[in-house]
# Entry
Amino acid sequence: MSYLVLARKWRPQGFDELTGQETLVKTLKNAIAGGKVVHAYLFSGPRGVGKTSAARILAKALNCAEGPTASPCGKCPDCISITNGSSVDVFEIDGASNTQVDNVRDLRDTVKYAPSGSRYKIYIIDEIHMLSESAFNALLKTLEEPPPHVIFIFATTAPKKIPATILSRCQHHVFRKVPRGKIKEHLQRISEAEKININSAALEMIARAADGSMRDALTMLDQASSFSDDVGENELQMLLGLPEADIILKLSEATLKGDISENLFIIKDLADRGCDLKPVVKELVDHFRNLAVVKISGKAGALLEFTAAEMESLHQQASTVSMEELTLFLSQLMKLESEVKTAANPRYALELGLLRTSFVKGMTSINGLLGRLDGSADKGAGAKPAVEHKAQAKSPAEDNKTENTNEKTNGSLELWHKVIEKLKAEDSLIACKLTEAKVVGLTDAGLTISFNGGMSVLAGSVVKDARIIEDALKDITGQRLKLKVVSLPDKNGEKTGEGIKQAILSDPTVRNTLELFNGKLLKIKPLNGSE
# Structure
């Protein structure tokens, strides 16, 4: 006799064996017990969670010799024939290979005949969303006026692809992903029954990799048992290409620290062992998402399926990073996941992506930078206001926006006056030139100044001394800021707002920052107030 794979051998044969679908099971049981069986059911949900198995169990419950019953006996001719797929009154149709209208017309011609010996004639159509539009239209008439002896059970992984006219005529039941803990418990029972020697950590790896699919979990357990008589984490990782938990932890710690060198060594080790890097990125994304959940919610334990030790580790890592940084990390890693999937060389794509992600750790928000400057020194004398206030009524939202803008602008001017004061003592000529400059903007990456009109001739000489000015900026802020100098014509030849925008966008730092965060420059207002 040929070997029967675990996914088929341990297929649920009764409602109580449907792991992780307790709510749905209770609904179906009550419907059968109360005589409220409808003519068309739709089972939707992810792959491998029990949709087709539930359809077969429902067919047995309705046609069982002791039924209709919520607990089919499994021993009568109807139950046995449905289990082994030989029933002449229960038809299993693959919607993916019977998509055409002619297939549905054949079905429509047969439904009018009474069942051969069973209580109901039952049609189970799997992946029904694959039917063509004409096939759905042909099915619609039968669903509108079904014979009393016919019951349809549809299964799909994509319910949104099913026409609304079909959906409205079905009782829709949604299957959920099986929780990781329940998958592990089920695998443990099967391992003991099948005498498979596999440790708890390896079962945890399979449950995590299955991502809610019981069938996938059983397939991986089957493969692992064929590979070794004593299955552990190392054997499982080598066999299935699954990243080890400590590898993900090391990668995340190095990423949070911005340590690209450590990440490169970890990636090299994975590549040398022949590991598939795509699951590694997926696990890394999942890990940072879990860190974000821990950071946001005070009830993360109810949202995440982890042991107490694992939760403690997540809390420890989350405490080392701000929510803003976590958001940027997660955004970059999600982008990296799609890049690695399509890359000709996944290793190089992963290395470059983690290098790009490492920049997040060294970033400081503008508000944070201005906050540090706020109380560090007295404001420079003679500072000119950056915004001319006009008397006009504003909404609270506009007041807040104006207040935030003024705060950042005044902070930029305060920083600039401090730079000038510092340079007066070191190089009075440079300081004198800088008094003619106007601050255009301050970002996390740098400071942009402009020389307008006749003073634009000073721009070239200031650019030559940019390093001295950048050193002064670093002494004041504690951060290396790039100086950008632009020249703007005055009066008749003055650049428009669009011209200033193009000048700023020409800055490599600005371009790289916008590209890194998928940003967009919406509006720039010149200091003289022109648009």
The first helix runs from residue 6 to 9.
